[in-house]
Specification:
The protein is α+β, with helices and mostly antiparallel strands. It has 2 domains: 29-104, Nucleic acid-binding proteins (OB fold (Dihydrolipoamide Acetyltransferase, E2P)); 107-224. Helices cover 45% and strands 20% of the residues. It has helices spanning 2-20, 112-128, 136-151, 155-172, 187-203, 210-224, and strands spanning 29-43, 47-54, 58-64, 81-88, 96-103. Strands 3-2-1-4-5 form a 5-stranded antiparallel sheet.
Length: 229
């Protein structure tokens, strides 16, 4: 009985202290940062949940009111660069997001090969990286890769950048893949490197969601195979 009374007294003293030293649930969140749109899914009838890659805060999800409306649909295209403002009452809540388009990838979505590359790179990023952990190197590399996909004269110009980005993600996540740098002139070797990295991605960071995400890579591989070596 004395032990029980002592436990009750101790609990009544410690509980308020425990609440005071755990500010994570009461610290407001307010971010304004450049970001890359990586994925968007519908939420309710008109809203959406967007996943953004930022340099300082990593992958961040946000609630976008009116995401399925005519004005915001072009903004939420994966691969777009945006200026994002995210607000929440605490770090543990899903923040509300307001996005301003700064660079659109829309013009390249009508090109099947470029569209497949953008879809795969952004889907991989959204699925592989944990949320709210800074990854400045992948952010810079993804931005450069998207520029290459949109402006290189052919896939021969951007496939080495894609392979390097995939290897970078594997290293950042602790899987230690060496950067794949095949000779751009050796197209069969580039495709072989693409296939090897695909095995590692499916086995490690995408093991739990292989079917959902790797389908985008399969589509890209089929389109790359149509390029003559």
């Amino acid at each position: 009985m004395e032990l029980l009374r002592a436990f009750v007294r101790t609990s009544s003293v410690l509980s308020p202290i425990a609440l005071r030293i755990d500010p994570a649930h009461i610290r407001p969140m307010h971010l304004r940062t450049p970001a890359i749109v990586c994925a968007t899914r519908a939420h309710g009838e008109t809203a959406g949940i967007v996943r953004l890659l930022t340099a300082e805060h990593g992958l961040v999800a946000g609630y976008v009111a009116g995401a399925r409306g005519r004005e915001l649909r072009p903004v939420l295209v994966p691969g777009n660069l945006v200026e994002a403002e995210l607000r929440a009452r605490s770090d543990s809540q899903l923040p509300f997001a307001r996005l301003e388009l700064t660079q659109s990838r829309g013009p390249w979505l009508s090109e099947p090969l470029a569209a497949a590359a953008i879809q795969w790179a952004t889907a991989l990023t959204a699925a592989a990286l944990p949320e709210r952990q800074p990854y400045p190197a992948p952010h810079a590399a993804l931005a450069a890769l998207l520029d290459a996909v949109c402006h290189a004269p052919s896939a021969r110009g951007w496939l080495p950048a894609l392979l390097a980005y995939e290897a970078l993600l594997l290293r950042e996540l602790g899987y230690g893949a060496a950067a794949a740098r095949p000779d751009p002139a050796d197209w069969p070797a580039a495709l072989a490197a693409f296939d090897r990295l695909g095995v590692a991605l499916a086995r490690y960071p995408l093991a739990d969601r292989r079917g959902d995400v790797m389908g985008a890579r399969t589509m890209l591989r089929e389109r790359l195979a149509k390029i003559e070596g």
